C-alpha cells in the first residue's frame, strides 16, 4: 500500500472511531494481563462472561495465587483451554509476586518470561496498560494487514515488523485497536463487508464483495 494511502487508511478509521478501546473488560494492568492470557483462542465476549466473577474474587496477583488453580479453573471453565490457562494464571501471578513485587512489569522481556505470555499478549499490555505504541498482531490484524496490502507477511512477527515500519507515528498508539475492530466487524474472515468499508477504495483485496455478492 502506498504511503499516502496508509495515511488515508488510518485517518478514515480514526474519523469513524476516534478513541478505540479493547473490548476485554479489565480494571488494572494485572486484570488486563489475565484477560488477554484467557483470550488466546477464545473470543473477547466469552472471556468477558467469565472474568467479572473471577476478578471479584481475585483482582491482584496475591489474591489470585491464594485462590489456587482448581478454583480459577472453575471460574473460567466456559473458556477454551481452561486447564492450561488456569495453570498459567496461577503461574504468572506467583511470578509477579516473586520477581516483580506483585506489579506487572513495563518491559517486554519481563512480560514474555511470565507463564502463558507471548509477544502478542506483551504488546497488548504494553500498549493498553502503559501507553506504549506497540502493535499486537492477532488473527484479525494478521488478516487485515495481508488482505488490504497494508503490511503483507507470512508470520505474525513479519506482519508486526511491517506495520511498525509503515504506520505513521501519530496513528501507532491506536493502530492495533483500529485493525482488530475493523477485522472483527467489517473485514471479516469469511465474508468481508466491503460495501460498508471506509477504506475499500484504497484496499488491495481483489475479491471485494459487491451488492450482488452479498
Outline of this structure?
This protein is mainly alpha-helical.
Account of the 3D structure:
The protein is mainly alpha-helical and 214 residues long. The protein is 58% helix and 0% strand. The protein folds into two domains: 85 residues, Endonuclease Iii, domain 2; 100 residues, Hypothetical protein, domain 2 (Endonuclease III, domain 1, Orthogonal Bundle). The two termini are 26 Å apart. The mean pLDDT is 95.
How do the helices and strands line up, and which of them pair or pack?
Elements: H1 3-16, H2 29-38, H3 44-57, H4 61-67, H5 69-75, H6 82-100, H7 108-112, H8 119-128, H9 139-148, H10 156-166, H11 169-185
Can you give keywords for this protein?
single chain, mainly alpha, Endonuclease Iii, domain 2
Instruction: Tell me about the largest β-sheet.
Output: none
The CATH homologous superfamily of the largest domain: Hypothetical protein, domain 2
Secondary-structure element pattern, one letter each? HHHHHHHHHHH
Query: How many domain units?
Result: 2
CATH architecture of the largest domain: Orthogonal Bundle
Number of helices: 11
Radius of gyration: 18 Å
Structural class: mainly alpha
What's the CATH topology label of the largest domain? Answer: Endonuclease III, domain 1
Give the CA-based shape: elongated
Overall pLDDT: 95
Which percent range describes the beta-strand content?
Answer: under 5%
- Please mark out the parts with pLDDT under 50 across 5 or more consecutive residues, or reply none: none
Amino acid at each position: 500500500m502506498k504511503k499516502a494511502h496508509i495515511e488515508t487508511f488510518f485517518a478514515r478509521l480514526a474519523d469513524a472511531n476516534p478513541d478505540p478501546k479493547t473490548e476485554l473488560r479489565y480494571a488494572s494492568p494485572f486484570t488486563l494481563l489475565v484477560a488477554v492470557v484467557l483470550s488466546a483462542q477464545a473470543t473477547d465476549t466469552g472471556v468477558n462472561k467469565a472474568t467479572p466473577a473471577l476478578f471479584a474474587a481475585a483482582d491482584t496477583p496475591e489474591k489470585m495465587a491464594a485462590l489456587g488453580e482448581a478454583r480459577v479453573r472453575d471460574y473460567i471453565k466456559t473458556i477454551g483451554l481452561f486447564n492450561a490457562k488456569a495453570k498459567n494464571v496461577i503461574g504468572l501471578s506467583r511470578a509477579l509476586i516473586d520477581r516483580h513485587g506483585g506489579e506487572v512489569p513495563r518491559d517486554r522481556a519481563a512480560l514474555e518470561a511470565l507463564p502463558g505470555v507471548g509477544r502478542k499478549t506483551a504488546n497488548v499490555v504494553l500498549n493498553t496498560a502503559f501507553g506504549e505504541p506497540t502493535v499486537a498482531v492477532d488473527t484479525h490484524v494478521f488478516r487485515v494487514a495481508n488482505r488490504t496490502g497494508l503490511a503483507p507477511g507470512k508470520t505474525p512477527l513479519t506482519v508486526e515488523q511491517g506495520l511498525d515500519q509503515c504506520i505513521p507515528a501519530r496513528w501507532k498508539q491506536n493502530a492495533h485497536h483500529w485493525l482488530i475492530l475493523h477485522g472483527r466487524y467489517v473485514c471479516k474472515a469469511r465474508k468481508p463487508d466491503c460495501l460498508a468499508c471506509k477504506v475499500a477504495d484504497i484496499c488491495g483485496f481483489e475479491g471485494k464483495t459487491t451488492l450482488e455478492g452479498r
